[in-house]
Amino acid sequence: MTARRGGHRLVRGVRLHFLEFPESNERPPILLLPGITSPAETWAFVAERLAATHRVVVPDIRGRGLSDNRPGLGYTLDDYATDALGLIEALGLQKPIVIGHSMGARIAVRLAATAPDVASKVVLVDPPLSGPGRTPYPTPLGSYLTAIDAASRGASIAEFRQFTPTWSDAQIALRLEWLPTCSVEAVTETHRNFQEEEIFPDFARITCPCLLIYAGNAKVVSPEQAAEIVRLLPDGRAVMVRAGHMIPWDNLDDFIAATLGFLLPA
């Protein structure tokens, strides 16, 4: 297993916890930004695979895991992008590769658009494309809140399988362990902002090379939407992976192959 360590940094008054998987080489480090109810620990297995070639940092996004979750903290895209930029600076990540999944992909879009000189490459993994005038995000808020409540009440793996019927017992157990650390306020505000915050103008402002990975077995990014995003990106491409929205949980090998195919020289 890849060596790992955890830590905390105070970023503009917000305490952020992170996991780090160090790898000493000359390649750019990776900042891996998880989704709406995914603390860092739930993406450690992905970080371990990527750490074979890169230093990887996975934060607990504010309101999740061991990071700050005090009431009224604020959960806009700008809040999240500011945290990501501050963590990059605090950890001395030089020209990192920013990989974001779902909510984390929206954060990566905003970060790359507002701080265009920060990242060397960006990988966007099945980002919610909802926003004003667009199709709503397909997973309703109630689904997240019900899952958090079930985990917080001590649901068994068998009881929780209704939410993730294709996952292994080990995957569900990890989900049950960490879901209760997700602030209901954070999840509720973030889900509302999926509908209220527009990200499409940001795509055209991403100047570094960008890869969109979208799930072939989900309804978050359609092939037509993927093509629209690639047209907007100054330097972009897209690849579909046969998996549900939690792509590496369903198909880790193809996710890693697509990601490293973009990150590593041929």
Could you please describe the fold and organization of this structure?
With 266 residues, the chain is of the alpha/beta class. It has one domain: Rossmann fold (3-Layer(aba) Sandwich). The chain is 38% helix and 17% strand. It contains 11 helices and 8 strands. The model has no long low-confidence stretch (mean pLDDT 96).
Helix proportion of residues, in percent?
25-40%
Fraction in beta strands: 15-25%
Radius of gyration: 17 Å
Structural class: alpha/beta
**Tally of discrete structural domains:** 1
Number of strands: 8
Helices, by number, come to 11
Can you write the helix and strand succession as a string?
Answer: EEEHEHEHEHHHHHEHEHH
The main β sheet shows up as:
8 strands, mixed
Query: Between the first and last Cα atoms, what is the distance in angstroms?
Result: 26 Å
Q: CATH homologous superfamily name?
A: Alpha/Beta hydrolase fold, catalytic domain
Domain AB hydrolase-1: 28-251
EC number: 3.5.1.106
Pfam families: Abhydrolase_1
Protein name: N-formylmaleamate deformylase
Element layout with pairings:
Elements: E1 5-11, E2 14-21, E3 30-33, H1 44-50, E4 56-59, H2 77-90, E5 97-101, H3 103-114, E6 121-125, H4 141-152, H5 157-160, H6 169-178, H7 184-196, H8 200-203, E7 210-215, H9 223-232, E8 236-241, H10 247-250, H11 252-263
Parallel strand pairs: 3-4, 3-5, 5-6, 6-7, 7-8
Antiparallel strand pairs: 1-2, 2-4
Helix pairs in contact: 2-3, 4-6, 4-7
